[in-house]
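Key idea: predict the complex, not the pieces.
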Amino acid sequence: MINIFEKHQPTEMYQIVNERGEYNEAALNDLNLNNELLQNMHYWMLKGRIMDQRFLKLHRQGRIGTYGPFSGQEAAQVGSALALSKTDWVVPSYRESLVSMIHGTSLKQFLSYLKGYFGGNRPPEDAKLFPIQVIIAGQVPHAVGCAWASKLKKEDSVTTVYFGDGATSQGDFHEGLNFAAVYNVPIVFFCQNNQWAISTPFEKQTTSETIAQKAIAYGMKGVRVDGNDVLACYQVAKEAIEKARKGEGPTLIEAVTYRRESHTTADDWTKYRSQEDVDAWVKKDPIVRFERFLMNKGLLTTERKEEMVKQFEEEIEKAVKDFEGTPLPPAHETFDYVYEKPHPQLLKQREEFKNRLER
Amino acid sequence: MRKLTMIEAIREAMEQEMEKDQNVIILGEDVGVNGGVFRATDGLQKKFGEDRVFDTPLAESGIIGTAVGLAMNGMRPIAEIQFLGFIYQTMDQICAQAARMRYRSGGRFTVPMVIRSPFSGNVRSPELHSDSLEALFMHSPGLKVVIPSNPYDAKGLLISAIREEDPVLFFEPMKLYRSSREEVPEEPYEIPIGKASVIKEGEDATIATYGGTVPMVLKTAQAFQEKGINLEVIDLRTISPIDTEAIKESVDKTGRLMIVHEAVKTGGVGAEIATIVSEECLYSLAAPIVRVTGYDTPYPVQTVEDDWLPNVERITEGVENLLSYQ
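Result:
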């Protein structure tokens, strides 16, 4: 443990591997990561990128509904998600599909969400995972309540909640952080500052220099990390999670990254930002950087990468094809999960709906 | 049998459920040391400790939002919103979050939570302390809305609400908190949610009401009784899901219907009931439906509230109009 929260001011950006793949040796030695974990980080980042780009294509082909891409944010998601145990809770928003997958959602399940099948947002039984949240910052107090319950039940579980820079303007963000600090619950607030809330840039979201410094106001630790550096993201998340597990309080992490694509498939970024803006961040690509690092360490070759790309493409293609043969569940199921038991009026509506569809 | 006020019955329901199930916890503003501004949780923190009864920071959305997360991870929170007028601060957490979590997650998660909140008028409170906002929550599938009008019902309905697997809004008419003492059994008991209660039988007309207006409707009905007119009075007790059968059965019998509530008229519980009747038993009606409700203005200042709210005079006039229609 480097104990980053003691050594760094929230406004300082923490980094281990820079854009050229050069790394801070001392920090890396201190992390003492095994090769398997390093390769696992790469596995998920690369798979995430391929999946994300594939989903954009599927949307253009009319094969899935609206999709919120995460390309450019793989390091922040993979670094933080791999720092969690399976007994830890994850509370995601709609841009954390990669985190959800690392924490237990299958590709098949996610496809059923994107294709609008009922139950598509049902996290698997054995995954400590909340459903995808669409309301900005709505999930923040839920995560605090979840962590609070773990504490009350004396469970060893930490909750990580994900949100973006836009969410930090919402009341629920402030209320959530304040409650978490007041009750000292085991939680990590992981903000992916991807610079854009649809068309609103970070500098119009807040006049705070950083998001991390907002932690000070709630009496908790805050840290700003290079969100395109998977090792730095892993380390700060790991330290924050273990700190929370020991009962030493919540942490606000700001991972500085970039939303390379549009907000969703229903948005067009050319309307509000320049190609130069995007290009500047493409140069800081989290995967390219980490691959340089791995290749320098002899943990990855170009051939191996090409094999992986091919394997992922085939896997995704197969998952999509398989899923497209899945029969739809009966539409009247939509009435079955409103209450534990549908009340008489709802049952009546269910019958009418069912009969009309069967006509 | 010993007699309790409504506030004592509410307190007892929570105390007994907390004894029975250690996952039942209470959170809200001033609910701990102070025992709530109306003393609904008086002594509960002392009895169950600071890990069961929480004084929260002053933030309604934070209270409900964290209660949703607590409920999703195994607890059974009872959250208090100090006055119903403050609930607008947490509409998203109630209607877009608590109400939909079961549906959203395809049944993986449920939110067994009760939101208690005092409301209704005639108590000379400041702005946004007396508003009847119950209809807002009828319009959100996934929620149940319960409103007791007496100590016995309050205890049984609150126990049912705490044992429910879905979120229940439990709205308590402030003016009835200490207005009467009635017999309340000592042991815990449930009154089913979604069932109305016919509190006075009659054949000449039906009055459907709930909460704060129940005692004055009953009083008016008794006055008519002395003149030989038999009014049937239904205390709805739950407004979502509403007891359609009880309303239909009564209207089929009497052929005349009046609805009384404190909430504003447009888009209210009365509008829903009138629609149900027109859909289900229009031809049983011998007269147009009458609504005696608050007017379509913000809840008025203290000097106006007695005239603005349903009162015995307005209800009496309503009944006369209802009965005189040929």
